[in-house]
C-alpha cells in the first residue's frame, strides 16, 4: 500500500536530513528520539491527506517529515521542562546529554523542520509558522493556567483568583493580570492549540503539498483539528487509567504537575461529599505523595467527570468523522475514519472501577505517538 | 534619514506582531526583552543592506524584524542554559517566570520570526531556516567542544582527547566519538555558525526583501559573515577586559563556563613559564574562584594570545570591508564600513596592563546588541 511505502520514504528523509557528515555528536543528539521509534501519527495523517491530491508530488514526503520533526522538537523541550528521565523507552535527551544540549537540539529540529517545509512555498511556510505559534502559545497558556485555573497547586503560591483578578504566577512569582474566565473554555482552547494545531498542520500541509483542492484541504484540516482535540482528551482520560491501559505510560502525570484536565474540571464542579473532598485534596497543593494521588484518582474515577470526558472524546471524534463527509470516498478516508474509532475505544478502556491506582513515574515509556 | 525611520517601523512591527489581544501574560513574556532595549544591530544591517535594492518594498521591515526575533529567541534560551539572572538590565525571562516559560517563550519567538519571514518567499524561508540551523549547530558544537577542546573543565570529566579519540561528554556523561582536530579551527567554525550566520541572514534577507541584485546580496552576505566573526572575536577579547570596558557586561564569563576562546587557545600554545602556569591553572577545572580567575586573566592579558586575537578582529574587519568594495558607493556602504571601524577600536580598548581583574557576575547588563 502506498502509505506504507511513503512512510518508509519519510523515515529515510528524516534520517538523511538529520545526518551531519563528520559530526557524529550532532547526528546522534538530533536523531536520538527518532531512532527510538514513535508511531509517526502526524506523518501518517499528512500522507493520508495527500491522497486527496496527487500524492506522487515531490513535496509530499517532505511535508510529512517536517511535521514529525516539529513534533519531536516539542518532545525534546517537554522533557527538559518536565525533567523527564526517559522517553520512548530510552533515556531522554536531557537525561543523556544535559539540559543545554537538549534545548539546543530541540531548536535544531525546529530549524530543520522549517528547512524541509520552506521549498513547499510561502503558503506552506506561513501555515507551518502559524501552527507552531499556536502550539507554543497553547503550552505557555497551559503553564500560566496552572497558576490561575480553579484546580491549582500551592507550589505556584497563587490564591484562587476571581474573574479579572491579579495573581502571583510562576515558579518565581512575577505579577501579572489575568482575565480568569471559564476554566473549561480555557482548557479547551489550550488543548486545541497545544495538540490539535500540529495535527491540523499535518493534514493541511500534506494536502497542500499534493496540490489537493482548497475545499478538500479545508475539510482535512477540520478533521485533523477535531481529531487532535479528541486525541488530547483521550490522553487526559487515560492519565487516570491504570498504567497497563496506556501501553506503559505512567499515569497521574497531569495530577502531579497540576495540569487541570477536563475530568478534573468537571469533577470539581459537582455537588455532594465526593467533589467536596476532591476540592479539599486538590487545594492542599501538588499531588505528589502516593496516598493522596490514589485518593484523588479514586474520587475522579467515581465522579461523573471521567464519564463526561469520555463522552467528549466521542463528541470530537464524531465531529472529525463528519468533516470527512466532505471528502470523496476512498481507502484513505476510511483509514482516517478508523483512527477516530480507535481513539474512542481507547478512551473507553476498561471499566473505571476495575482500574488500579495510577503508577508513579518510572522507566516506562510514554507512547507519544 | 531613512534607516532611522525604518528602524522605528521595525520597532512597531515587533511590538504589534507580539501583541496577543486578550492575553497580557503571553504578550508580556514575548515582549519582555524587546521592551528592555538592545541595539538592534541585526535589523540595522538588514535595513542598510536593503538600500542596495528598493528599500521601500513592503517585505523589508518584515525581514529586519524577523532577524531580530530570531536573535532575541536565542537570548531567551541562552539565559535558561546559563541560568542568567539579568539581561539588558532587567530580570531575565527565566528569572522572572521560570525555565518552563522561558523555553516556551523562546520557541514562540522563533515561530513568530518564521511567520514574519514566510511571506518573503521560499528562498527567504529556506535561507532563514538554514541560517537558524547553522546558529544552533554552532551552539551545540560549542557545548560539545567544552568537553573535547584542549581548554576544558573537570566538570565534564573528559580527559584531553587525542585526534579521533572517544571521550566521555556532557554533564551526565554519554559516550561519543569525536574527531578532535585542531581546536582553533573548531573554534573558528563554531563562532562563524553561532554568531556570523545570523548577521549573514540579516544582510541577505534585507537585500532579498528589497529585490537587490544577486551579486550585491552575495557581497552583503560576505560582508556580514566576516563582520559577524569579527564581532564574536571582539566579544571574546572583551571578556578579558575590565567590566567598564564592556558597558557593564561582567567579564570572565567564558573562563567560568570553560568556553575556549581564541585568546586562550593561542595563549595555551605558547612556550615558557607563563603558558605553562596557565595550562596548569586551566587543567584544575572550572575557573570559578576569584583568585584563580584573577590569576588566569592576568596571564592571558600578558600573553601574546590576547594581542593575536585583537589582530584577528582587525583581519576579519578588513575582510568585511573588502567585501563592501563590490557595492556601489553610498551612505549605507559608508555606515557598514564605519561599523567595522567601531569594532576594531572597541577590541583594542584600553592597554591590557591597565585593565583591572574581571568582575564576577552581578546585576550588570550584557550588551548583547
Spatial order of the strands in the main sheet of chain A? Answer: 1-2
Total helical elements of chain A: 15
For the sheet with most strands of chain A, the description reads: 2 strands, antiparallel
Q: Quickly count the domains of chain A.
A: 1
> Largest interface by residue count?
A-B, 59 and 59 residues
Shape of chain A: globular
Number of strands of chain A: 4
- Global Rg of chain A: 21 Å
Write the layout of secondary structure elements.
Two copies of one chain form a homodimer.
Chain A: H1 2-17, H2 24-35, H3 41-50, H4 59-82, E1 86-87, E2 90-91, H5 93-97, H6 99-117, H7 122-148, E3 166-169, E4 174-177, H8 183-209, H9 214-238, H10 253-257, H11 262-269, H12 273-283, H13 290-302, H14 304-324, H15 331-348
Antiparallel strand pairs in A: 1-2, 3-4
Helix pairs in contact in A: 1-3, 1-4, 3-4, 3-8, 4-6, 4-8, 7-8, 8-9, 9-14, 9-15, 11-14, 12-13, 14-15
GO molecular function (chains A, B): metal ion binding; prenyltransferase activity
Organism (chains A, B): Sphaerisporangium album
Protein name (chains A, B): Polyprenyl synthetase family protein
Amino acid at each position: 500500500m502506498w502509505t506504507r511505502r511513503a512512510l518508509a520514504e519519510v523515515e529515510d528523509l528524516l534520517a538523511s536530513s538529520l545526518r551531519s557528515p563528520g559530526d557524529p555528536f550532532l547526528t546522534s543528539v538530533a536523531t536520538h528520539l527518532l531512532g527510538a521509534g514513535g508511531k509517526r501519527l502526524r506523518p501518517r495523517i499528512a500522507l493520508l491527506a495527500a491522497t486527496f491530491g496527487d500524492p506522487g508530488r515531490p513535496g509530499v514526503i517532505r511535508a510529512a517529515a517536517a511535521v514529525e520533526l516539529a513534533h519531536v522538537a516539542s518532545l525534546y523541550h517537554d522533557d527538559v521542562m518536565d525533567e523527564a528521565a526517559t522517553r520512548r523507552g530510552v533515556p531522554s535527551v536531557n537525561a543523556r546529554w544535559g539540559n543545554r544540549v537538549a534545548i539546543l537540539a530541540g531548536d535544531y529540529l525546529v530549524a530543520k523542520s522549517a528547512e524541509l517545509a520552506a521549498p513547499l512555498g510561502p503558503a506552506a511556510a506561513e501555515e507551518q509558522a502559524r501552527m507552531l505559534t499556536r502550539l507554543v502559545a497553547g503550552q505557555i497558556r497551559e503553564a500560566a493556567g496552572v497558576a490561575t485555573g480553579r484546580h491549582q497547586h500551592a507550589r505556584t503560591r497563587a490564591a484562587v483568583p476571581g474573574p479579572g483578578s491579579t495573581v502571583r504566577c510562576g515558579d518565581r512569582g512575577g505579577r501579572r493580570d489575568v482575565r480568569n474566565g471559564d476554566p473549561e473554555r480555557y482548557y479547551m482552547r489550550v488543548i486545541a492549540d497545544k495538540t490539535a494545531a500540529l495535527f491540523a498542520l499535518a493534514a493541511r500541509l500534506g494536502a497542500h503539498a499534493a496540490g489537493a483542492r482548497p475545499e478538500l484541504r479545508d475539510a482535512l484540516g477540520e478533521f485533523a483539528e477535531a481529531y487532535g482535540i479528541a486525541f488530547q482528551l483521550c490522553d487526559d482520560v487515560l492519565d487516570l487509567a491504570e498504567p497497563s491501559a496506556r501501553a506503559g505510560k505512567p499515569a497521574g502525570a497531569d495530577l502531579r504537575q497540576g495540569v487541570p484536565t477536563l475530568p478534573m474540571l468537571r469533577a470539581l464542579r459537582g455537588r455532594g461529599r465526593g467533589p467536596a473532598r476532591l476540592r479539599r485534596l486538590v487545594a492542599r497543593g501538588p499531588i505528589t505523595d502516593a496516598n493522596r494521588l490514589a485518593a484523588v484518582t479514586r474520587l475522579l474515577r467515581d465522579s461523573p467527570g471521567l464519564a463526561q470526558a469520555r463522552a467528549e472524546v466521542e463528541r470530537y471524534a464524531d465531529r472529525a468523522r463528519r468533516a470527512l463527509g466532505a471528502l470523496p470516498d476512498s481507502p484513505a478516508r476510511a483509514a482516517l475514519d478508523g483512527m477516530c474509532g480507535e481513539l474512542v475505544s481507547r478512551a473507553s478502556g476498561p471499566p473505571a472501577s476495575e482500574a488500579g491506582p495510577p503508577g508513579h513515574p518510572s522507566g516506562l515509556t510514554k507512547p507519544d505517538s
